[in-house]
Structure formats: structure tokens, C-alpha cells
């Protein structure tokens, strides 16, 4: 389990500051459109950030991503 947590932390470290910001807002349950408005970008930009986050974290959906993040926070 320690190895997988370490791997998850390494994946999280690969996220850009903007991707981390988007992740934090998505984690609050905000829709892409609202996040885009808050950050002053288009909804398509948020979709692109979200896709990059999913790829870097190797998850397929937001629920899995939030589970991974919650696991990391509990360490």
C-alpha cells in the first residue's frame, strides 16, 4: 500500500499549478462552466485541463479521481 500511495503522490506532483487549481474546484462539486467562469477561461479550457488531469492521474472519471485525492489527504 505504501508503494501505491507513493505512486499516487508522484502523479499528483506532475500536475501543473493550474491543473491543481481546477482539481480543487472540481472537487468541490462545481460544474465545468462555473469553474471556467471563476477562472476567467472557456469551458473548453476546463475540459482540456480535466482531461490532462485524468491522463496524468490515470483515472477514468471524476469519482475515481476524488477517491484518489481523498486517499492522499488522509495520509
Largest sheet: none
Strand content: under 5%
Question: Could you name the ranges where pLDDT drops below 50 across 5 or more consecutive residues?
Answer: none
The general outline is: globular
Tally of individual helices: 5
Instruction: Report the C-alpha radius of gyration, rounded.
Output: 12 Å
The helicity comes to over 70%
Reading the helices and strands in chain order gives: HHHHH
Q: Structural class, judged by helices and strands?
A: mainly alpha
Mean pLDDT: 89
Number of E-state strands? 0
End-to-end separation in angstroms reads: 11 Å
Tags for this model:
75 residues, mainly alpha, 5 helices, globular
List the helices and strands and how they pair.
Layout: H1 2-13, H2 17-27, H3 32-39, H4 43-57, H5 62-73
Helix pairs in contact: 2-4, 3-4
Amino acid at each position: 500500500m505504501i508503494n501505491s500511495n507513493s505512486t499516487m503522490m508522484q502523479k499528483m506532483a506532475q500536475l501543473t499549478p493550474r491543473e491543481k487549481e481546477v482539481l480543487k474546484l472540481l472537487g468541490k462539486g462545481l460544474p465545468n462552466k462555473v469553474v471556467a467562469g471563476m477562472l476567467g477561461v472557456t469551458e473548453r479550457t476546463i475540459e482540456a485541463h480535466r482531461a490532462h488531469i485524468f491522463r496524468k492521474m490515470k483515472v477514468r472519471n471524476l469519482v475515481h479521481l476524488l477517491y484518489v485525492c481523498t486517499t492522499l489527504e488522509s495520509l
